[in-house]
Amino acid sequence: MDSNESFFSRLAHRLGIIDRRYDTSPQSKGGRVRLAQEEQRTIALNDSVRNQVKDFSDNKISTTKYTVVTFLFKFLYEQFSKYANLFFLFIGCIQQIPGLSPVNRLGTLLPLSIVILASAAKEVAEDSKRAKQDAIVNATKVKTLHGSQFVDKKWKDVVVGDIVRVENGQFFPADLILLSSSEPDALCYIETSNLDGETNLKIRQGIPETAHLLDPDSVSLLSGEIKSELPNNSLYTYEGTITFDGGKTVPLDPGQLLLRGAMLRNTRWIYGIVVFTGHETKLMRNATAAPIKSTKVERSVNKQIIFLFITLMALSILCSLGALLRTLSSNFESDVLLIQRSFAVADFFWNILTFMILFNNLIPLSLIVTMEFVKYYIASLINADLDMYYEVNDTPATARTSSLVEELGQVDFIFSDKTGTLTCNIMEFKMCSIAGIAYAETVPEDKKAVVDDRGVLSGYHDFKTLLRNAEVHETAGVIADFCTLLSVCHTVIPERDESDPKNIIYQASSPDEGALVKGVQLLGYTFTTRRPKSVSVEHSGYTHEYEVLNICEFNSTRKRMSAVIRMPDGSIKLYIKGADTVIFERLAKRGNPYVDSTMIHLEDYANEGLRTLCLAYRDISESEYQEWSRIYDRAATTINNRSEALDDAAELIEKDLILLGATAIEDKLQDGVPDTIHTLANAGIKLWVLTGDRQETAINIGFSCKLLTEEMTILVCNESTHLDTKMFLMEKLDYFRKAVAAAEAEAAASRKEKYSGFGKEVWELIDRGGEWLASQNGAVGMFRKIVSGEVKGIDKDKVLDLEPFALVIDGRTLDFALEPDVKLIFLELACLCKAVVCCRVSPLQKALVVSLVKQNVDGAITLAIGDGANDVGMIQAAHVGVGISGMEGLQAARSADVAIAQFRYLEKLLLVHGGWAYDRLSKLVLYCFYKNITLYLIQFWFAFDNGFSGQTIFESWMQSCYNVMFTLCQPVALGIFDQYVNSRMLIKYPQLYRLGQRSEFYNNKTFIFWVANSFLHSFMIYWFMKVTSSESQMLADGRVVNIWLVGMNLYTIDIILVTLKAAITVNTWTWFTRLAVLGSLVAWMTLFPLYAWLAPMINLSPELYGIPGTMYSSWTFWFSILVVPVMPLIRDFVWKYYKRSYWPRSYHIIQEMQAFNIQDYRPRMDWFKKAVYKARQIQRLKRSRGFAFSQTETGQANLIRNYDTTIKKPSGL
């Protein structure tokens, strides 16, 4: 970095424009950290004096946008980054030049100051809410070691080196190194849902050297030091060492790290030493400074402000040219006004500034503050919506920023996490198949077991029947093995509730395994005790102990888990559970009578969206086991490729299996998720699921939540190299291109049939041009142009009637797909698919996928929704970020723009609040442009009659009051209360949402139309007034009409005109709308004479003296205000009638249905579609069924087997 960059960087930090709380220096990037001297920190154990002299961060956090010191600089920087505010600041400054301004010097600076102050009040109000949340978190208390006892200390006062005691159900106040716990071998369970959205518990284990520190006295004697890596944002890595006074050094790894934001679960207490605090914790390192986001409407407004500025400059130059020509050609200026022609050219440039001041309000000063006020109120309506209030957790919807509300009505892509966002991550044991007989927890009437005419049993039995069959049925032996397998083949730890010893709490790192153990408990097999080498199960009033000889762990390659068990009678059995594909291929050729019936049941379970496992067993002789055990032991002690050696050893014994049956677990979706996804799809929104889960699980959930449907063809991209990935994507995209070309050719042919003669010739010419373009843009050529960047972007609004496809891609392949020469190929293919599922993706990949769409799909608005810290990156990368809230300290919700408690609330948030906000803001912006241009163009027409002198026709303070008083309520009424369609219709007809996606209410075309209308209206009212009120017109008292009388008459007509325009624009009449329309007129007619009477007394507006009485007593005035405003609106009425009668839009039809309560009798075809796609559905089920495993793949079996639940746990006090 050069010296200039360093200076400006330091200046930006000093002024608060760049926030130091979110440092992006190299050491904060995360990843592997080498503990070199300059890249480590040393923390003394139980020595606060040594730690205080080091520059460690405090534990106080602040997520506010501003601080007391940085507010002024940062706020002003943001405000004057807006073109409109910068323009008015310039106008206000040049108004101070003596003799230059034709209006009052404070006419711009004073209103601008009011606008800036109003914006400051809004920012302070929003930031204060964040400050209150921070204060609550910082004031939370934790027990900290002081001497030889633990005392309460606020989180903000915790420092690096403190030893803290965290109890069950509490969040960790900082990043800690685990020393000891109430569990054996310093084990503890943590929930990281605030970090990664996963509610399944994770195991952490302290080092053996500190596991004995079980009371305050012993831990207070600990001495030595910790050498730790520097603060970084990598949630999954950590390197450090702990050195004791005796000189022994022990390495530390992520297994000992307890992160701020995680919660201690199913563990009475832990002791931990603080290593990172405050904004140096890994959680806060991931909470990067919130990016400044602008909406599509705001970006359009900025462009159109530039257009109006160019128009203003053109008008100013035109008028200045008029003044120049008049000075050079007319004797009046030289003979009467004594203007020297030698100064004419110099005066030309000064006149440009004069006319810029005169016409400056072509750009509405009040537009920005009016938009911010309306957005703030719309956000408060979102917060107050009871339909989005989640009563279970007392959680309302919260718009954390009001700046993006209209963006909610234009979303094209939704990027969603799965766990905790679409699903609850709560598993329930729903069904099972044992010995070819299907059982279910709840059996609907139409699925109850019956025997058909052929004597074949079909349907489901309930679990009560299963309990009876376990005693007397011919399959009782199979049922016993099935239940025994579920109760012993797992890694669950049982704990008894101290208040109720009969209540057993199962600690499971996998929610699937927890559900299976709880499910088999309902069948009479209760898992009660785990010891290092055995487990105990209660059944039929007796306790049976099973010796666990070996466990072959699950991993994504094996897709199964097995346990070698010595039964109570001394026999040895192999129990195994896993995906059907791997179990069926290992079944014995004989002795498996239940395969066909079990496969039918598996298909039924998959059709219900359930996660399935197949269960099997094998009897093993003692000699075979002893031989295999030696092979397994050698594999377990292998230094290199240990996991592969263990997998090979497991293959030797996992063969010739006997099938017992299958289980079906429901990965419970959040309420309303399938219907919400279906509605959003009908609204034209594409949903991409970005999840860290395995592919099978993600696909299964995709079908459950209706993201994937039976008619879709699934493209699975699992490639191992860059080239293979590119070739796969190019092959599929080439197929799509041919289909698109065929569809477009068919559409062109149908269009040509409508034309004949010259029209037919035109279409043939278009076709020939299309053929030439096709030759230039063939598949290979297009790929070359995409890679080289010649193709700017992808058309998001292109509607194609193609066969529905879904793309599924895993994280490894996604790495290749995101490389520069492949990413646009991947993007185009993905955009042509109805749904996209990315599996096993990292937080960085989530953000990269969102950014890819955001930057390369023309005009696309992206929304990201998630619930964990691993979703923060994509939430901040998207145009709109939505966090799932409902739990204290949820990082995603705190980093999001909008927080909701359930995914289903997205439906109303987007379709209703978003649709209304976009329509309202569109009308507000267009109307503000219209009313300002209409008024201030009168000055332009007047310039032709006053010799381009720069004379104003309106009194200065009346001009200043135009936006802040007399035309203030009309745009507010449009922006807050107008509803082009009610909420019921917006939900019933989600296709209306596409109006916002295509920017149909506010675009360049509508803007030009409204501006042209303003030119027409201003010209018409000026021309009518010129005809009715000329300089020669005599008043009743003998005086002639002056410019102030004409000006105030024109001003009155304009107020009536723009108010009537608001009246014909509004769709919904509320009490405030009526007040805005009638109240504005009444306010002007009453306040104007009062002001004109009082102001001249203090020499404020002397030109208005006597005007109201003269104006109100003139019949011409009353005639003009009744007739002139109506004349320009005749065109508007005719155009509106024509559009609704002969060129109706979709919402016009819905408005008619709403107004006259017309029912929709369209036939529903759902039943027909189900029949048509039944064959495809069955084929899909045979291809892929989800299986229920979600725990950490390796390393847990040894930890679990060291656990002994019979040992009494220490109190730690």
Care to describe what's here?
- It is a single chain.
- Helix 12 (367-383) packs parallel to helix 32 (969-976) and helix 32 runs antiparallel to helix 37.
- Helix content is 47%, strand content 16%.
- With 1213 residues, it is an alpha+beta fold.
- Strand 18 (450-451) and strand 19 (457-458) form a beta hairpin.
- It has a 10-stranded mixed β-sheet, with helices on both faces.
- Among the domains are: 158-286, Distorted Sandwich (Calcium-transporting ATPase, cytoplasmic transduction domain A), CATH 2.70.150; 412-422 and 670-743 and 797-902, HAD superfamily/HAD-like (Rossmann fold, 3-Layer(aba) Sandwich); 423-669 and 1188-1202, Calcium-transporting ATPase, cytoplasmic domain N, CATH 3.40.1110.10; 915-1156, no CATH class.
Name some characteristics of this structure.
single chain; 1213 residues; alpha+beta; Calcium-transporting ATPase, cytoplasmic transduction domain A; Rossmann fold; Calcium-transporting ATPase, cytoplasmic domain N; ten-stranded mixed sheet; nine-stranded mixed sheet; 47% helix; disordered N terminus; nucleotide-binding; ATPase_P-type_domA; EC 7.6.2.1; magnesium
